[in-house]
Design goal:
The chain has helices at 7-11, 105-111, 115-125, 155-186, and strands at residues 24-26, 33-38, 41-47, 51-61, 64-73, 79-81, 87-91, 97-99, 101-102, 191-193, 198-206, 212-219, 222-229. Strand 3 and strand 4 form a beta hairpin. It is globular. The protein contains four helices and 13 strands. The protein is 24% helix and 34% strand. The longest helix has 32 residues, at 155-186.
Length: 230
């Protein structure tokens, strides 16, 4: 279930993470864009007549960037928040136009097939996804290698070792499933935002390489544009 928050809780994003180097939000008072800092995290906030949008960077993993996006409906009619319609635009150092893409939430979760990719994604988000700290579970799915060197004569001990190994693999698989579920719940999906309410969540994007990136967030019939310097 998506969280519906008051504006104060929306814009003052309670993310216990540090500023991500390479992504600096830019203020533009003429466009209604300001920058606020919460726990060392820079949050770009765009305010238009009917709505407000907040965008912060939770973390990076290569060219994959985790955006925390918040939508606030200040109108008197329901508005549709569609994170898949977010665009990333810019011009590279040669002046050529470049753009990014937004992951489909379910496809992104499905892409985390291995323990390494899942643990890297969780580590990139850190306390932002798990406010009370990461789950107390191991990410390493390799487990014991299953090889026994030398001559094994205690077949009872061997059976017990295999049973322990199987139980450990089952425990780790369950931990992975839980981590995927938690990450999936944090992902923002298309939702209706009613007057006076707000939603926020995680949007995963593949970001272009450019000196300045414009994050374009349509909301209702308004379009919010927030710029980040790299």
């Amino acid at each position: 279930m998506k969280r519906v928050l008051l504006m104060a809780a929306l814009i003052v994003l309670s993310l216990n993470v540090t500023q991500v180097f390479g992504w600096t939000p830019l203020e533009d008072s003429s466009a209604g864009v300001s920058v606020v800092y919460i726990n060392g995290l820079a949050v770009a906030v765009s305010r238009l007549e009917k709505s407000a949008v907040g965008v912060a960077v939770d973390g990076e993993q290569g060219n994959t960037v985790f955006l925390r996006v918040a939508y606030r409906n200040n109108s008197d009619a329901p508005l549709l928040a569609q994170p898949e319609s977010i665009e990333l635009r810019g011009r590279d150092y040669d002046g050529a136009y470049v753009s990014g893409t937004v992951y489909d939430p379910d496809r992104y979760i499905e892409s985390l097939r291995t323990a390494d990719s899942l643990s890297q994604a969780i580590a990139s988000l850190g306390a932002a996804l798990f406010p009370s700290g990461p789950p107390q579970t191991a990410f390493n799915m390799s487990g014991p290698d299953g090889f026994y060197w030398g001559t094994i004569t205690d077949y009872g001990a061997q059976a017990q070792a295999q049973q322990r190994q199987q139980l450990e693999l089952q425990r780790q698989a369950a931990a992975q499933a839980l981590q995927r579920e938690q990450l999936s719940r944090a992902m923002l999906r298309t939702t209706t935002v009613f007057p006076g309410q707000a939603v926020e969540g995680l949007v995963v994007v593949v970001a272009p390489k450019a000196p300045v990136i414009t994050v374009v967030v349509p909301f209702g019939d308004e379009v919010h544009e927030l710029q980040f310097a790299q």
